[in-house]
Write a structure and sequence with these properties.
Chain lengths: 106, 477, 626
């Protein structure tokens, strides 16, 4: 059986994943809004997830897909905590610009 | 009875002092220190020089080894004799949190006694570092609070000496790799070649040069003496720097005799440079404690030179002088302390004319001073004579350069004496010495003059063990 | 028995020292009586022991205990009382007694009298120890001990810092010599493995020294340096004139009669050693001769009564060293003894004058004292005649013998010594005439209160003047008791000079020389009644001599200043920089930490950047470099 993977090749998945990851990285570096940075992190995470799934199919090994489920679950938890932190910060300083978050500097 | 009882006594004394509370602490500490001294004296009388070894760890091969030959006993006797005297000098003073203070003093005495007795490199190193802690705390918490420099000075003192000791540790570890034991007798037979010996020697040298101190390593000394409380200064100069000198004789020279022979002159000249330099700088000091610190640098430089010469006479003289210098410097610092307790200043330029106001104190001060410049009849003369004789036998110029200390020493000491004690009076009242102060000073002076006239007991104690060590220091080819 | 005697002789002044110090405070003259008695006891025992040794001809050895032990040899605490040390003891304790007696009156109103007498007793204790020590190290205890007492006594009036300076200077210059002495002792120890005089002598006689003559030469040179310190010779003589800051009896006892002769004693003790090294002997003779001349010229221009006497002492000591250098030890000893008599008398006389003049020491403000101070005048005049070498007084014989020896050995030295003697006569009579003759030049008040001192002062003067007059009898040319007496202790006595034509001619020359000096002084100060100029009018070469050839200033410039500069340099430049350098480790750690701190600036963006950069770098390394 010819899967979609064989049809378009693993490379395309890898390129997409790398692209998504880079978008995430640049978003993280260039934006200062905590929510946007958060989203960028999620994009990076998902880029990795995509690659894991792609390789999992390529190697005919389910372990990769299991990992993806894990990481999605962890990411969801992380988002919950992270958003809560951001809300708390907003309540404290009235902004979610990370440049203003320097209270912990030594 | 075993000589470890001294360690146990001092340790127990420290605990008891701490437990006795602030009011009774000085008396308890004094009691224990006197008891220890009496014990040490009995050991000396019995000539109990049996070695004592208990296995401690099997890997690394460490044992709890004690060696109490005449050399070690002399230094132990010096320490245990000085501690009661030093405690006596502090009895009339208000010391906050006295229980901790006195406990630390006894603890330090214990560590020093341990250093002198230890015959296992590992044990020795532990005691060596253990002695540093209490004096650091004494300086840090009870030091002269008038300026903010105290903390920095003490910190530097600690880090400097501690860092120096690490080089010694390096040497010990290297020796252990070679020999497989830390026991002193094994180390003596290590059979290193001369390159190895040089590095081992150098490692030891850095640790000892900082502790003694020898010329370019003395930067910690003057200020530490200045800011530490007088009791701390006395412990440091009277007893603690003898640890370094003792170790040169006990550890450094016999373990690396080839390096000692080859590079000895370098170290001797370095030490002698300290003699001249210390005297010159002492000449210009205005602070009495700093002056004593530099005078100590000069005196100790001569002792170090004698130790490094490896000559049997010079080393015997060095041990004499360790004892003599220990008493003299404690006496001198006590005199400074007495002046400080009356006038609240020890700047020479603020003083003068004390002789008119306090003739007894002046006489006692003069006697200590006379001993410090090595007038014949005092024990310091015996020490200086023997050292210079031994040094001169190797190279007469050592004796000449080392001998300049008798000129320069007289110069700075008499200059200081003239400017503080003689001249016109300041019209400020100066109470003459009290009974306890006079007693303490007379005790010190008595010891110095007694052994100055009759040094035979000490000679009989020291000479045999120096002769034994001489086998390792000057091996027959 | 002997041991007891010697111990009593030695310890009596020490007991006196302790009891005067502790029990005689505020007790009037008690301290003086204690001190005098203590020394007198010593004197009595000295006489007893002297008689014994003089009859039996056997020196007394006393061994007390083993003092120091070196690897190669032991140093005993033991005494040797032979002819030489007993001779010294006789005049030390004898003159000491007289001077103690004198001091009772001289210091009768000083509140610290008890200290004065205790120090003086302590001095005698150390002096006796110096003289009776059986080895060099015991001698050295005494040597340094008298130095300490000299320090204490010069600075006796300790509220005056100038006096304290003088005391300090004396001690330190002596210590320079002492270092030489110590080195000399060391070398003798290395060469002979003993420091005992008797054993050293045996070793030298046995010929052990010849293989190491250079070392022995170095040793004697060092010992000689030690002697120049204590006996105030070039180049270490400048402390002695300053030492006149002390009370006058101290100057008489310590700085004229006894302590300053210690160097001569030591060299005479070791004559066998010095005989081995002619080069050092020559040096000694020249140093002595030049010191004699130099000090004599300075003395001619001094106006302080004590300073004149001090320079005169230096000059006379120079003559003694000349004799020592020429190998004429018994001549030097002879001059030491006669000098002790007349110089002590002169100093005590000057003390009497100062006492009478209420502290005035400048001879320009004196004159005509002979009417009011008869005893002082007569004794002073006798001693002046003696020191100038007018026969038949003591100084004539001793000085004449020195000149005689010099003439036989070295004409140049003889000329120098002869000039020095002429100058001696001149400055001494100048002093005598200016002080006691002419008209009184002091204040009205002084003139009114001027009177002869009491019996405590005049008695020692009379005794010493008598001794100064007849002391020469112990060694008259041709029949010298002293030479026979000292024969057993001196290794090679110079041959006795017979009364031949040369000798007589020389004697006559010496007397004529002395008379020339006297004559010039008489002409200037009696005939023309000249008075030395005031300080501000002295100019030119005279002022150079008046300022003691500026030797003090030169020493100050080439030694004291550089030492102090080096000290300041060490304190102000080396010390801070050294600790900066050593503690630069700490500074480096500090600055590293500070740099690192900048990375943690709290900027989240920067952290992320670093994070990503690190990731990229790792990836780059893993995939492209490895």
């Amino acid at each position: 059986m010819e899967t979609i993977l064989q049809e378009i090749g693993i490379e395309t998945y890898l390129y997409l994943s790398a692209l998504l990851f880079c978008i995430g990285v640049f978003g993280l570096l260039l934006r200062r809004n905590a929510i946007v940075m958060f989203m960028s992190i999620e994009i990076m995470l998902n880029a990795v997830n995509l690659m894991l799934v792609a390789f999992s199919t390529f190697h005919q090994d389910a372990a990769g897909q299991v990992f993806v489920f894990f990481s999605m679950a962890v990411a969801a938890a992380e988002v919950a905590v992270g958003l809560a932190v951001i809300v708390a910060i907003f309540r404290n300083i009235g902004s979610i610009d990370v440049d203003q978050l320097k209270n912990l500097k030594g | 009875m075993n000589i470890t009882i001294l360690l146990i006594l001092l340790g127990a004394g420290a605990l008891a002092t701490y437990g006795a509370g602030n009011k009774w602490a000085p008396k308890v500490a004094l009691g224990f220190s006197i008891l220890t001294f009496i014990c040490a004296l009995t050991f000396v009388n019995q000539h109990n020089s049996s070695d004592f070894i208990v296995k401690w760890f099997s890997n690394p091969n460490v044992s709890f080894a004690i060696k109490s030959d005449g050399l070690a006993l002399t230094l132990v006797l010096l320490t245990t004799a000085l501690v009661p005297i030093i405690l006596l000098t502090s009895l009339n003073k208000e010391i906050k949190n006295a229980k901790s203070f006195y406990a630390l003093v006894l603890f330090m005495a214990g560590a020093m006694v341990g250093t002198f007795l230890a015959a296992d490199g590992f044990l020795y190193y532990i005691f060596w570092e253990l002695a540093l802690l209490p004096i650091f705390m004494i300086g840090l918490f009870w030091g002269d609070n008038s300026t903010g420099e105290r903390k920095k000075t003490m910190m530097r003192f600690f880090v400097f000496t501690f860092a120096g000791s690490l080089f010694m540790l390096g040497s010990f570890i290297y020796l252990y790799q070679k020999v497989g034991s830390f026991y002193i007798a094994d180390l003596y037979k290590a059979n290193l070649n001369s390159t190895e010996q040089f590095w081992v020697f150098l490692g030891f040298f850095i640790a000892y040069a900082i502790k003694i101190p020898i010329l370019p390593f003395h930067s910690w000394q003057a200020k530490t003496y200045q800011f530490a409380p007088t009791v701390g200064t006395m412990l440091l100069s009277g007893a603690m720097l003898k640890m370094g000198l003792y170790s040169v004789i006990r550890w450094q020279m016999p373990i690396a005799p080839l390096a000692a022979k080859e590079y000895g002159p370098v170290f001797i000249w370095l030490s002698l440079a300290g003699v001249v330099y210390g005297s010159l700088v002492a000449l210009k000091q205005d602070n009495l404690k700093k002056l004593m610190a530099y005078s100590s640098l000069a005196h100790v430089g001569l002792i170090a030179a004698a130790c490094y010469s490896g000559s049997q006479d010079a080393i015997t003289g060095a041990v004499y002088q360790m004892v003599g210098h220990g008493f003299v410097i404690v006496g001198l610092f006590y005199c400074v302390d007495i002046i400080h307790s009356r006038y609240k200043t020890i700047q020479i330029s603020d003083l003068g004319g004390i002789r008119t106001l306090a003739p007894k104190f002046t006489s006692l001060f003069l006697l200590v001073l006379v001993a410090s410049i090595g007038l014949p009849g005092t024990f310091n003369f015996i020490g200086e004579f023997t050292m210079l004789y031994g040094l001169g036998a190797q190279n007469i110029s050592y004796a000449v350069v080392g001998g300049t200390s008798i000129i320069l020493g007289a110069y700075y000491m008499l200059k200081m004496f003239q400017n503080t004690m003689l001249g016109t009076t300041q019209q400020k009242p100066f109470d003459d010495v009290s009974w306890s102060e006079g007693f303490t000073l007379i005790l010190i002076i008595g010891v110095l003059f007694y052994f100055g006239m009759y040094p035979k007991p000490l000679h009989d104690l020291i000479a045999p063990s120096i002769a034994q060590l001489n086998v390792y220091i000057n091996p027959i080819k | 028995m002997e041991t007891t005697f010697v111990l009593l002789l030695l310890l009596s002044p020490f007991v006196g020292f302790l009891s005067a110090l502790f029990f005689a405070k505020n007790k009037g003259n008690l301290a003086g009586y204690i001190g005098t008695t203590a020394v007198f006891v010593s004197f009595v025992f000295t006489v007893l022991l002297f008689n014994q040794v003089n009859t039996t001809k056997n020196p007394i050895h006393i061994h007390l205990f083993e003092w120091m032990q070196l690897v190669d040899f032991k140093i005993n605490f033991s005494f040797l009382l032979d002819q030489l040390s007993l001779l010294w003891l006789l005049f030390v304790t004898g003159i000491g007694t007289l001077i103690h007696l004198y001091s009772i009156s001289y210091l009768h109103d000083d509140e610290n009298r008890h200290k004065y007498f205790s120090y003086l007793n302590l001095f005698l204790f150390f002096m006796i120890l110096l003289v009776i020590g059986s080895n060099l190290l015991i001698l050295f205890i005494g040597w340094e001990g008298v130095g300490l007492c000299s320090y204490l006594l010069i600075g006796f009036w300790h509220t005056n810092q100038n006096y304290n300076d003088a005391a300090k200077k004396a001690f330190i210059m002596n210590r320079i010599g002492d270092l030489g002495f110590l080195i000399g002792i060391f070398i003798l120890g290395y060469v002979f493995n003993t420091l005992d005089f008797v054993e050293l002598k045996q070793a030298v006689i046995a010929g052990n020294a010849y293989s190491q003559l250079e070392w022995v030469g170095l040793a004697t040179l060092c010992l000689f340096i030690g002697a120049t310190g204590k006996s105030a010779q070039l180049p270490l003589f400048t402390w002695l004139p300053d030492a006149m800051a002390g009370p006058t009896p101290v100057s008489a006892l310590i700085h004229a009669a006894t302590m300053v002769t210690a160097g001569i004693f030591m060299i005479t003790r070791l004559d066998f050693m010095f005989d081995l090294t002619p080069a050092v002997q020559d040096l000694m003779a020249y140093v002595g001769a030049f010191t004699a001349l130099l000090a004599a010229t300075i003395a001619c221009f001094q106006n302080d009564i004590k300073k004149v006497l001090a320079y005169s002492t230096v000059s006379q000591l120079g003559l003694m060293f000349l004799a020592l250098g020429l190998g004429a030890y018994q001549v030097a000893v002879f001059h030491v003894i006669t000098h002790a008599f007349f110089k002590a008398c002169l100093f005590l006389g000057s003390g009497s004058v100062i006492h009478g003049m209420h502290g005035e020491q400048d001879i320009r403000n004196m004159g005509g004292l002979r009417h009011k101070m008869k005893t002082t005048h007569i004794t002073f005049a006798i001693s002046t005649l003696a020191i100038s070498g007018i026969p038949p007084l003591a100084g004539f014989f001793s000085k004449d013998e020195i000149l005689l020896v010099a003439f036989h050995e070295n004409t140049l030295l003889w000329i120098i010594a002869a000039i020095a003697s002429i100058l001696t006569a001149y400055y001494m009579f100048r002093l005598l005439f200016l002080t006691f003759y002419g008209t009184f030049r002091g204040t009205e008040k002084q003139a009114k209160e001027l009177c002869e001192s009491d019996g405590f002062i005049t008695f020692p003067l009379v005794v010493l003047a008598v001794l100064a007059a007849v002391g020469g009898a112990i060694s008259i040319p041709g029949n010298s008791w002293l030479e026979n007496y000292l024969k057993p202790v001196l290794s090679q006595a110079t041959e006795a000079h017979h009364l031949d034509a040369t000798t007589l001619t020389l004697m006559a020359t010496a007397v004529v020389g002395a008379l020339i000096g006297l004559g010039i002084a008489f002409f200037k100060f009696i005939k023309r009644e000249e008075v030395p100029m005031t300080d501000d009018r002295i100019i030119g070469f005279t002022s150079l001599i008046y300022d003691k050839y500026k030797i003090d200033e030169i020493y100050d410039f080439i030694i004291v200043k550089p030492i102090n500069l080096l000290g300041s340099f060490g304190k102000n430049v080396i010390e801070p920089n050294l600790s900066k350098m050593i503690f630069s480790v700490d500074a480096i750690t500090d600055s590293l930490g500070n740099q690192g701190k900048k990375l943690h600036n709290g900027n989240l963006g920067f952290y992320l950047f670093a994070f990503v950069f690190g990731l990229c770098a790792t990836v780059y390394y893993l995939f492209f470099i490895r």
